[in-house]
């Protein structure tokens, strides 16, 4: 019997909790500074960071708001993050929570954030509806996540590559798919940017792979892909070894209709 997608997430992130606290791409992204600039938070606001992981967004928001509720599905991940942040960030509260069924009342938060996590959610439409539910009218939602191109073959390649690398991966959506979800939930897009995100292959794959065999499968899958795919994802290799790969990331700010 196949493992429930959410249990895969718990298993994966429980094993790799420390890696997500120290991961360069998660901890030091320029998007953390940009996130504060876009949200322009006020000192009396209450913020919610969904699927906080290593707590990097919660940490960035903490000096600018009254309270941050950092939630995660994985208890071990959340406990590890709390251990790292508790001493210096005393207005962050840690809550075990499912992004698709949040344990908060309607219209609770001025800000909701979710960074590099929605591709792990089995039902993204439920997640977006929950975001809209817990946001105050005119509240802000900022999401950052990996996205697939609109071209079907490129999208299928990226999702399969991610599933081979990370058993807890569910699906990256395209920008247009996300925009439909936002519109259906009454979230108005006010600002966005796309960027190409390069990875050193070995560091990237070792963050989630559990064996050398798994790493070889990911590498073989990438190397056997077409020239079109190699060009789009900027794959570089030497001596039959993948050196770098690049994927698309989207950052978007929405406002809940008043």
TrEMBL record:
A GO molecular-function descriptor: S-adenosylmethionine-dependent methyltransferase activity
BP term (GO), one: methylation
Classification lineage: Bacteria, Bacillati, Bacillota, Bacilli, Bacillales
Family designation: Belongs to the methyltransferase superfamily.
Alphabetic keyword roster: Methyltransferase, Transferase
Originating species: Scopulibacillus darangshiensis
Methyltransferase type domain sequence ranges: 48-142
Name of the featured protein: Methyltransferase family protein
CDD domains: AdoMet_MTases
InterPro entries: Diverse_substrate_MTase, Methyltransf_11, SAM-dependent_MTases_sf
């Amino acid at each position: 019997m196949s493992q429930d997608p959410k249990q895969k997430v718990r298993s994966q992130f429980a094993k790799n909790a420390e890696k997500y606290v120290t991961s360069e791409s998660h901890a030091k992204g320029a998007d953390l500074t940009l996130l504060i600039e876009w949200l322009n938070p006020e000192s009396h606001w209450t913020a919610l960071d969904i699927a906080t992981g290593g707590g990097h967004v919660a940490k960035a928001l903490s000096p600018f708001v009254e309270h941050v509720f950092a939630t995660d599905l994985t208890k071990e991940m959340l406990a590890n993050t709390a251990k790292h942040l508790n001493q210096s960030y005393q207005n962050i509260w840690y809550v075990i929570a499912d992004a698709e069924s949040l344990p908060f009342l309607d219209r609770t938060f001025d800000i909701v954030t979710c960074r590099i996590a929605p591709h792990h959610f089995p039902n993204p439409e439920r997640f977006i509806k929950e975001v809209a539910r817990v946001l105050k009218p005119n509240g802000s939602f900022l999401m950052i996540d990996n996205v697939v191109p609109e071209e079907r073959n490129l999208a299928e390649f990226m999702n399969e590559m991610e599933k081979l690398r990370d058993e807890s991966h569910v699906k990256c959506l395209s920008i247009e798919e996300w925009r439909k979800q936002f519109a259906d939930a009454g979230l108005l897009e006010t600002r966005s940017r796309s960027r190409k995100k390069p990875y050193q292959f070995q560091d990237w794959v070792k963050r989630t792979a559990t064996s050398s065999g798994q790493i070889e499968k990911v590498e073989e899958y990438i190397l056997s892909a077409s020239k079109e795919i190699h060009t789009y994802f900027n794959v570089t290799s030497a001596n039959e070894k993948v050196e770098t790969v690049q994927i698309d990331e989207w950052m978007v700010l929405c406002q809940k209709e008043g």
